[in-house]
Design goal:
The chain is 45% helix and 9% strand. The chain is an alpha+beta fold. This is Cytochrome P450.
């Protein structure tokens, strides 16, 4: 039953049955046209969840993203609809993640992260990233088929972000598996032990693994991003161990999962639309536009959340203090008021989009690195395997927060000379 001071806007968006084949674009289209600020009465399978507001249109996403004083990331956390299924101590730990912070602490911490993501530093990595992609593709020689997730995307993106963090290559697979489980806690394939084991065993183990990265750098500083966090000060005080651990996990998770998801979605779209792929093969200068269109149509993260700090009107609806407000990026990225034929994959569109956020304090700091990786991955894969085709099922992760395929089996086709 809806609360007496809430409208009954119909069924929730947060029903995993709607997401089995990816984001529920038909439902989002209906909401944008009829009720773009929509009261969702709960989450399927969680009877104690009180409900939340769903934003499905670009205009409202931008307003909320750029007004941190009214729409807090810290009050209730920003990276999921609810933390209500987690123990209280993990809920509090999660609030230390930079994504879950408000200014001024957020801004000071982000400034530290930005030291590792300057345009100059990222541009200097292009030759190395190209070498990483080439090395991974070379491993496919002699094979007829592969899984683009496990065999290409995962090893490339893990090596790149782990190289930034000072992680040796022999640990890439371990940390990639950790991040799949960390961010995919509700998916039975990504986290086969279930939520209780995730909270009671996996997270404590992961914290210990992170501390094992911190202690050597505390004694012997290096020039990697982890060491920057270990020795950083904010207002004359060092970060706590929990602050550093959550910073490390943010970099690991964003660097592994987001770029991996977008590359796989981009390649699938090109195979699903051979006319578009042919257009790119005939003019490889379109690859950056392919990347932006894939980011628009298939954002790696489906949502962020805010909590209202006061009563406020949004899209003609009254949002009350402490209400949850969920920003649905797949919906805003197909807003008919912003994009012509928004459901059409168009490699010439080169769009603006919300895959990295909708502006404001929380715009993704790693966007330039992600774009560079994606450009090189798509370009080199197309050049080598221009006739690649899908040969099996491509299941989606069963997690509201992430919009990614767990596998994409392909036939490579003849290698181009």
């Amino acid at each position: 039953m809806p609360s007496p001071d809430r409208p009954d806007d119909g069924p929730t968006v947060a029903d995993m049955e709607l997401w089995k084949q990816g984001p529920p674009h038909a439902r989002f289209h209906e909401l944008r046209s009829k009720c773009p600020v929509h009261w969702s009465p709960g989450i399927a399978g969680m009877p104690d969840e009180p409900g939340f507001w769903s934003l499905t249109r670009a205009e409202e996403l931008e307003k909320v993203s750029r007004d941190w004083k009214t729409f807090s990331s810290h009050l209730g956390g920003a990276v999921d609809i609810t933390f209500g299924d987690l123990p209280p101590e993990l809920q509090e730990l999660g609030k230390l993640d930079m994504i879950n912070l408000d200014p001024p602490k957020h801004d000071r911490l982000k400034a530290l992260f930005l030291e590792g993501f300057t345009q100059t530093r990222i541009a200097a990595q292009e030759a190395w990233i190209r070498e990483v992609v080439t090395t991974v593709l070379d491993r496919l020689d002699g094979r007829e088929t592969c899984d683009l997730v496990a065999d290409v995307s995962k090893p490339v993106v893990s090596r790149v972000i782990h190289g930034y963090l000072g992680i040796p290559e022999e640990d890439d697979a371990k940390w990639a598996e950790y991040m799949g489980r960390y961010i995919g806690r509700d998916d039975p394939d990504l986290n086969p032990g279930g939520l209780a084991q995730w909270a009671d065993e996996f997270i404590p183990m992961l914290m210990e693994e992170c501390m094992a990265l911190i202690e050597p750098r505390r004694a012997n500083p290096t020039d990697d991003l982890i060491s920057i966090l270990v020795h950083a000060e904010i207002d004359g005080e060092r970060l706590t161990d929990d602050d550093i651990v959550m910073g490390i996990l943010l970099l690991f998770a964003a660097g592994n999962d987001s770029t991996m998801a977008t590359y796989v979605s981009a390649m699938k779209a090109l195979m699903d639309h051979p006319d578009q792929r042919r257009q790119v093969l005939d003019d490889m200068t379109l690859v950056p536009s392919v990347v932006e269109e894939a980011l628009r149509m298939f954002p790696a993260f489906s949502l962020m959340r805010r909590t209202a700090t006061r009563d406020v009107e949004l899209g003609g609806r009254l949002i009350k203090e402490n209400d949850k407000v969920v920003l649905w990026y797949p919906a805003a990225n197909r807003d008919e008021t912003r994009y012509e034929h928004p459901d059409r994959f168009d490699v010439t569109r080169n769009p603006e989009h919300f895959a990295f956020g909708a502006g404001g304090r929380h715009f993704c700091l790693g966007n330039a690195l992600a774009r560079l990786e994606l450009r090189l991955m798509v370009e080199l894969t197309l050049e080598r395997y221009p006739q690649m085709e899908i040969v099996g099922d491509a299941p989606f992760a069963e997690v509201f927060f992430i919009n990614q395929l767990k596998a994409l089996p392909v036939r490579l086709g003849p290698r181009a000379s």
